[in-house]
Structures are given as structure tokens and as C-alpha cells.
Amino acid sequence: MDFKGKTIWVTGAASGMGKALAIELAGAGNKLVLSDRDAEGLKLTVNAAENKGSACYPIVLDMSDSDAIYKAAEEVIQKGYKIDALYQFAGISQRSKAVETPLENDRKIMEINFFGVVALTKALLPHIIENGGGQLAAASSLVGKFGFPYRSAYAASKHALHGFFESVVAENHQQHIRVSMIIGGRINTNISKFAIDKDGKEHGKMDPGQANGISADRAAKQIVRGLRKEKAEIPVGGNELLILKIKRFLPGLHRKIVRKINPM
Ligand SMILES: NC(=O)c1ccc[n+]([C@@H]2O[C@H](COP(=O)([O-])OP(=O)(O)OC[C@H]3O[C@@H](n4cnc5c(N)ncnc54)[C@H](OP(=O)(O)O)[C@@H]3O)[C@@H](O)[C@H]2O)c1
Question: Which of 18, 53, 184, 198 could form a disulfide with 27, with the two C-beta atoms 3.0–4.6 Å apart?
Fold first, then answer.
């Protein structure tokens, strides 16, 4: 993937990895469509990306609202943007055991992390195919590769993304659709603060996992390297990524580690 002159849509662009990625990509003669539900945060990203020379089209968009997602995609296409890449980072996490999590919380997480991503992909895919193909990327997680305590719905939402996108790329590879799944480890962002607890309230804390994670800027550089090479999976993080190898080669040990891991 050569980002020069491309039109790239980044969701979750107001904060964390989506923001850092948008700013990292800005300036290669490209145009950026930037969306998030946080209008104020979005403005800051737009200013930073425009200062690097990219034209930006900001959209305040709630990824739990499928109608709004289809309307936003239609609006962008009507304005004449030809989307070459769609990188989806909007998402929320969870801090509650499955046994104490009401079903409505599972649905809320699935709505944003899975159905929102699916809706925007479906809204743009025909347009991307018509224009000769493009690159899709979605933020998964280590927890998209294996279950983890206090993350049952979050893990399910990220696992579901793998199934969806593996199918999409298998169906459309000849139409030049490429997919990269971002396998996030521990990245120092606000994700734990906005994670929902068993009562559906914000967890409100920066967990040590995130506090000790790599910066969003470093994560963005790792992501860009992987996207350039059109890698099917892009692991992002530090030493914690070793767990992927443990799972693959020592699955019994992996299960023991996950049972004992501190989920906060
Ligand atoms: N940080 C990590 O350690 C880590 C690890 C693995 C995977 N990930 C994944 O990486 C992605 C980016 O997360 P991050 O770490 O960069 O966290 P972040 O800083 O919290 O960024 C997530 C962004 O998504 C936005 N968002 C949340 N719900 C939304 C909705 N309904 N509609 C539109 N936008 C919404 C948030 O807006 P608000 O600011 O308004 O909430 C925020 O700007 C997420 O999908 C996350 O699951 C993160």
C-alpha cells in the first residue's frame, strides 16, 4: 500500500491509536476522512493532520447507529471522495465478568465493536470495489485471538471481526480488496477509562496494562509499517505480544497463564 495521494477513512480518529494513525498518515498528498463520536477531539486531530498538509473531511459519527453510518458513507461518496482505504479504530472495552454482565452490555459492545464496523464496511465496499479495490483494516486485539478474564463481550466482538473480514477478503481478493487485522497488545490510550463495567458505567481508570503500554504514536508507526506491507495481521505492542507465540506453540501453558492473568 502506497499512501501517497490516497483517500483514507479512519474511525476512532479523536483519540488513541486512530488519532495517532491519522496524524502519522497525514501529509503524503493524501485526503483523510476522519470520524468519531467525540466532536471536540476530532477537531484537534483534524488541525494536526491539516498542519501536516492533508485535506480533511471530519464526520461526527456514532458507530452504534447503523442508519447514521450508511448516511455518512453516502455523504462522503456524494461529495466526490473516492475511498482507497478504510481503517476502523472506534471501539469500547469491558471490565466485568461474564456471570455479572447483563446481556444489554454484551449487545452494546457488539453494536459498536462489531456491527458498527460491519455496517461501515458494507456501506463502502461496493464503492471501493467499483473504484478498483482498496485496503480495509480493523482494530482487533490479543483478546481477538483468545478469551481473557473480564473481557467476554469485548473478546467476542474482536473474534467476530476476524471471521467477518477473513470472509470479506476471501470473497473479494480478486477485486483487489486487502484486509489487515490490527492485533493490539497494550497501548497507552484511554481505552480502559471508557470501558464499561457490570452496571454499564465507565470503568474510569487507567489500568496498569494500558499505563505501561507503548505510546499511541509508536503503535501508529508499527501499524503503518504493517499496512504498507499489506500484512494480514499486524501485531502492535511490546513484549506482551510473546503471548501469541505461547498460545500457538504451548497452548496448555497459555491456558494456565490466561487463568492467572491480572485482567485490570
Ligand atoms: N489500547 C489498547 O491497549 C488496545 C489493545 C487492543 C485493541 N485496542 C483497540 O484499538 C481501538 C482503538 O482504541 P484506543 O486504544 O485507541 O482507545 P481510545 O483512545 O479510547 O480510542 C477509541 C476511540 O473510539 C471512539 N468511540 C468509542 N465508542 C464510539 C462510538 N460509539 N462511535 C464512534 N466512536 C466511538 C472513542 O470516542 P470517545 O473518546 O468519545 O470515547 C475514541 O475516540 C479500539 O477498537 C480498541 O478496542 C486497544
Answer: 53
